[in-house]
Amino acid sequence: MRILDLTNCTRLRLWQPVHAGEGLDTWAIDGLVLHSTTPLGVILTSDFQQLNDQGSSWLSWFGGQLHSFCSRDDALVFQGELGEQLVFTGDSMITSETVLQFEVNVGCGTTDLSLEHPVRLEYSIDGGQNWHLVVKCC
């Protein structure tokens, strides 16, 4: 990913502004690593193996629950509620040498997936007041 406005207080979020409701638009995040190729090393990591994982890597999440999804154990799964669904990190040191790796599963092979309600990867450099797409739509 390329974030042009690099700062030492950058937040990342996966956000679905509108969720279609129970049984539709289910998505999950399973594992996230934010690391640097410089001596900074690992900045944050989360594999959702422990229930207190929210406090260690994530500032907050709304609408998600920890359980298995699509043959993956211990994922943060967003399903069954109308409205926005999101998870976001606390402030992190992001530089041009930072690498973000994560697994997100949207739909798990279902044919009922709605493309009208995408999951977006965004960043903020002002404490979450304003959010920007990491990769803008083509």
Automatic annotation (TrEMBL):
GO terms for biological process: cell adhesion; central nervous system development; neuron migration; proteolysis. Signal peptide: none annotated. GO terms for molecular function: lipoprotein particle receptor binding; metal ion binding; serine-type peptidase activity. Coiled coil: none annotated. It holds the Pfam family Reelin_subrepeat-B. It is found in: Secreted, Extracellular space, Extracellular matrix. Keywords: Calcium, Cell adhesion, Developmental protein, Extracellular matrix, Hydrolase, Metal-binding, Protease, Secreted, Serine protease, Zinc. PANTHER family: REELIN (PTHR11841:SF1). Belongs to the reelin family. Oligomer of disulfide-linked homodimers. Extracellular matrix serine protease secreted by pioneer neurons that plays a role in layering of neurons in the cerebral cortex and cerebellum by coordinating cell positioning during neurodevelopment. Regulates microtubule function in neurons and neuronal migration. Binding to the extracellular domains of lipoprotein receptors VLDLR and LRP8/APOER2 induces tyrosine phosphorylation of DAB1 and modulation of TAU phosphorylation. Affects migration of sympathetic preganglionic neurons in the spinal cord, where it seems to act as a barrier to neuronal migration. This is Reelin.
